[in-house]
Amino acid sequence: MIKKSTFVSLLITSLIFSFSGLSKPININESSSVHNENPFFFNSPLENYVSFRPGYDIDKGDTSFLRGVENCPSDIIQNTISGFCSTIVTWFPPTSSTLGAGMTLIEGPPPESIFPIGTTTIKYEERWLVGGATTIPPTICEFTVTILETEDPTITCIGDQTKSADNGQCYYTVSGAEFDPITNDNCGIASVTNNINSGSTLNGEQIPNGTTINWTVVDTSGNTATCSFTVTVEDNEDPTASNPAPINVQCAGDVPTPDVTVVTDETDNCSGTITVAHVSDVSDGGSNPEVITRTYSVTDAAGNAINVEQTITINDTTNPTASNPTPINVQCAGDVPTPDVTVVTDETDNCSGTITIAHVSDVSDGGSNPEVITRTYSVTDAAGNAINVEQTITINDTTNPTITCPADLVISADASCEATSVALGTPITDDNCGVASVTNDAPATFPLGETTVTWIVTDNAGLTATCTQTVTVNDTTPPT
Question: What does pTM read for this prediction?
Answer without folding.
Answer: 0.60
